Please model this.
Amino acid sequence: MNINLTLFGQMVTFAIFVWFCMKFVWPVIITAMEERQQKIADGLDAADRAMRDLEAAQDKATDQMKEAKQEAAGIVDQANKRASQIVDEAKQQAITEGDRLKVAAEAEIEQEINRAKEELRASVAGLALAGAEKVLEASIDDKANRALVDNLASQL
Amino acid sequence: MSGENPASTTEYIQHHLQNLVYGKLPGGFERHTENGSEVLAADTWTMAHGATEAAAMGFWAIHVDSMAWSIGLGIIFCWMFRRAAVRATTGVPSGFLNFVELIIEFIDSTVKDSFHGKNKMVAPLALTIFVWIFLMNLMDLLPVDLIPKVLMLAGVEYQKIVPSTDPNITMGMALGVFVLMLYYNIKIKGFGFVKELTMHPFNHWAFIPINLFMELVGLLAKPFSLGLRLFGNMYAGEMIFILIAMMFAAGAGTGLVAGGLNAQLFGDGTNGIFWLVIFIMVCGVCWMNLRGKISTGRTVLVTLGLLTVGGGVFALGGGLMQWGWAIFHILVITLQAFIFMVLTIVYLSMAHEEDH
Model:
């Protein structure tokens, strides 16, 4: 082992290289690395946030869809109910109308009958008068009377 | 490459452990050159030829190879990380930037784990230490003979390419850390540092000399253990690479038969010719296998036989062992760089905290 000037040569060289590394190499690279780390962290954060936003939006969309479906189902139900109601109402109306018409018709018939009865009563009186006249006119002929009465009866 | 006798084996190892030294030879030193010897009239700054001259230079010398590799690797480190720093964006990082950020993240978390004070210098210091020492250690994985051999052809006599096997380099860094320790101890604690040295562990004025002695030993042990641990580990690792290379190079260089023939019958050229013959024979066997004349099992057997005779098995085995040791050594390399860094952080953290 021979120690000589090389020792100090190496010490100086060592110092120069360390200085160079400290000045021009290490800070530059480590700063770039740290900045990149920050950037990546930010990017990941942003991605996370976007993911959460997306999830929220999806949830919201699902909720809205469900609501809309419920609403639509409600509307359809209501419409069905209303339709059957209308049908029922119409039926009811028809029945009442029918009844009313029947009653009116019956009343009319009654009226007609009454009128016919009145007329009949009037004509019976006339006929009886006419028959009596005829009996009186054409002697008392049983045969003829008989025919007269039959004739009268057929007119009833 | 080859070490056929003990003398050249020692030479091979010594050659590998000798730094390329530039320094001051004192006046009156006798220099041995190819033209005979000359006595230096005055102090001379020059390249050392061999270990004796390097030793004669004493303190006033500098290991050119260690410094060059260490500065070179440090510049590579700075350039790499500066490039990443320039490209650093807060947006999507590219592949290279990812890699750099991985290291920085790792070091940042290590520093945050063990350093609780506020100091902008500790993390860059830890980064420099870790990557720089790792790069210096990494040179150990290059084949031990490759670069020295190439530089030898270019005319450079000695070359140690792993700076962290040079105690000057590791101790230089450890002392740098030590200076920082002292600086922060005094800056943060002020008089408390003196109190810490004199009133621990026995809190009584009568024990001041004993306390001072114990605390000083403890304080000084830190940089020494720091520097010597790294040096020791890397030196031992390199030594094993050299030994493996030497052992198997010796085996492969001579071979079972060629060694004997070379020694007794023929001249110096035998080795080359012998290896050429073995090579041609192996090629021939392989060719015959390709033509379908002999079975693959037999080809392997014959090839192995030829290599055994030639000593090629040693070369193969050496390669395998180098490879195995290198894989294990990757662990040591990283671990030592990491330990140096962690201990530096811990020491500086201790310098920042009042209680101990």
Notes: Chain A has a mean pLDDT of 89. Helices of chain A lie at 6-137, 142-155. Chain A touches chain B at residues 1-11, 13-15, 17-18, 20-22, 24-33, 35-36, 39 (CB under 8 Å). The two ends of chain A are 170 Å apart (CA to CA).
